[in-house]
Amino acid sequence: MLVKKVVVELMEHITSKPKVVVLKYLKSQVKALNKKLEESVSEATLINEFTEGRGRNCMHFAAASGDIDIFQALVYLEGDVLRVDSEGNTVLMIAIQHNHVALVKHIL
């Protein structure tokens, strides 16, 4: 439950906060989780492996927001641009659906 709460908050930050705030929050939550959990959780694990109800991870939310800076930062932290959600949508497809032309060009 703790990890799910962190991921939901992270996804909310991605869609509403500037890059600096998102990255600071991500790093602080990884640190906090590693103190509370028996196994180590990396930034890449939080970005790629934890999803919300439709199987969307942080990369999908970044694509939906259209923020290239946040998207680039997540890719730098090993975000997987090829990840598919439970409906078969890739990160690129999400960017296209939200009409984020600049991000689509960046992904391609």
Question: What distance separates the N and C termini?
Answer: 36 Å
Average pLDDT rating: 81
Classified in CATH, the superfamily is Ankyrin repeat-containing domain
Radius of gyration: 13 Å
Number of helices: 7
Query: Into which percent range does the helicity of residues fall?
Result: 55-70%
Q: Return the string of H and E elements.
A: HHHHHHH
Low-confidence stretches: none
Number of β-strand runs: 0
Q: What's the structural domain tally?
A: 1
Largest sheet: none
- CATH classification, class level: Mainly Alpha
Overall, the morphology is globular
CATH architecture designation? Alpha Horseshoe
Q: Would you tell me which CATH topology applies?
A: Serine Threonine Protein Phosphatase 5, Tetratricopeptide repeat
* Beta-strand content bin: under 5%
Class from helix and strand fractions? mainly alpha
Topology (SSEs and partners):
Elements: H1 2-16, H2 19-36, H3 43-48, H4 58-65, H5 68-76, H6 91-97, H7 101-107
Helix pairs in contact: 1-2, 1-4, 4-5, 4-6
Task: Briefly summarize what is shown.
Helix content is 65%, strand content 0%.
Describe this structure in words.
With 108 residues, the chain is an all-alpha fold. It has one domain: Alpha Horseshoe (Serine Threonine Protein Phosphatase 5, Tetratricopeptide repeat), CATH 1.25.40.20. It has helices spanning 2-16, 19-36, 43-48, 58-65, 68-76, 91-97, 101-107. The longest helix has 18 residues, at 19-36. The chain is globular. The N and C termini lie far apart (36 Å).
